[in-house]
Amino acid sequence: MSALLVKGYAYHSHHTAYLDSLRDNQRLLLFRLIHTINREQELAAPMVISYLMGWGDTYHSHHYSLVHWSSFISALLKDFPALRCTQGSEEGGKDSGGNGNTASISNEDANEDANETNLMGASSGSENNKDTELEENGKTVTLSIDRGGRICNKCQVTDYCLRGHALEKSNVISFFTDTYEAEVNAKTHAAMQSDSHLEDVSHGPHPCGRPHNEHVQYLSTHPKHSIKQCIVHSQGHNTLPNFIGPYFPCQDDPEIYPFYCASMLLLLKPWGGVATDLKSPEQTWQSAFEEFYSTASQSIQHIVSGIQYFYQCETLAQNARDSATELISPQVESAAHTVNGDFNLEEDAPRNLVMALTEEGLQSLIASQLPM
Q1: Tell me: the pLDDT tens digits for 178-229?
Q2: How many CB atoms are closer than 10 A to CB 54?
Q3: Among 90, 284, 292, which residue's Cα sits nearest to residue 171?
Q4: End-to-end CA distance of the chain
Q5: pLDDT score for 121
């Protein structure tokens, strides 16, 4: 590496007239050294292809879909205020990454709930839109502006509630991992113009190439009904959810168990309205969750077990720390008692250590240390 740098610098210093400016001289020096390295560096074929195709400088085995879970919890607490008391006693307030950060879902998401209410009755009549991000009181809000000048707040709760009829059986996890949002193409828009009641559009087999994925339109009451659509991922995709917001509650705490049951129903049960589809008015949250869990698929039961596994690991780690503290404490107390005790070095010191050292005794001591 050093030899290449010296060779490249020597070539340019002999064949190029540098400018008198010291700043330009140093700038050209760094520029040419970097190009010398790049010219001699061996690049792997996957790296070259990744840059040429615009795939970036990293390779991921899975893709992650962001789910703003705090928005869904806010919608739940809005329709069922009684859960707010039990939710407030949840331990730790851990975020979805397992950290100990407290995630507030009261004041910030209350503003988002007000925007969601306006979204339900909003309409959009233009093909193109513009997304704008505004920050207010530490919160980022994404606004969409169409050609007509109408502004609406982009909200995942609205997207899920007003999903197409073909996705009615999808819960929150499957909706955001099995589908992605895309622009409505000209062919779909023309079909929607000819039939105003058309809500689900699925493309048939294509004569050449691989078949199209299923396209599902949002319901007509969605503010982006004529602009955006949901496209179902191909089978075997590698997309995982990445939840943003507070971590899911623990089922072992009896004080927050109703909130836990409501959260699991909100996450795993397909619904179109929070107030009407999660449970019937005569049901309790516990009975509604037990009824749903008894008929749930094995994959949903694995998700519930995986959420609880985090708290099981946390409990075992805390028990291990407590056990280690109990074992160390007696030894620390004994050592502290010994250190704090009164010592009389004159009394405790052995009296037979004082002896007269002579030349003969020193020679005999040296001789005793030598090997036989």
Answers
A1: 999 988 876 665 655 555 444 444 545 556 667 788 989 899 888 888 888 9
A2: 6
A3: 292
A4: 60
A5: 37
- Cα–Cα distance for residue pair 4/39, rounded to 1 Å: 10
Q: Annotate 249-292 with DSSP letters as a single string.
A: PPTT-GGGHHHHHHHHHHHHS--S-HHHHS--TT--HHHHHHHH
- Among 179, 270, 170, which Cα is nearest to 228's? 179
8 Å CB contact between 239 and 145: no
Backbone angles phi and psi of 63, in degrees to 5: -105, 150
Q: Give CA–CA dist 275/283, Å, rounded.
A: 13
Prediction pTM value = 0.62
Buried b (16+ CB within 10 A) or exposed e, 58-90: eeeeeeebebbbbbbbbbbbbebeebeebbeeb
8-state DSSP, 115: H
Classify burial at 5, counting beta carbons within 10 Å of its beta carbon; exposed 0-12, middle 13-18, buried 19 or more.
middle
Mean pLDDT of 101-128: 39
Strand ranges of the sheet holding 215-217, from the earlier edge strand across to the other edge: 179-183, 228-232, 215-217
CA distance 333 to 16: 77
Interhelix angle 257-268/69-79, nearest 10 degrees: 120
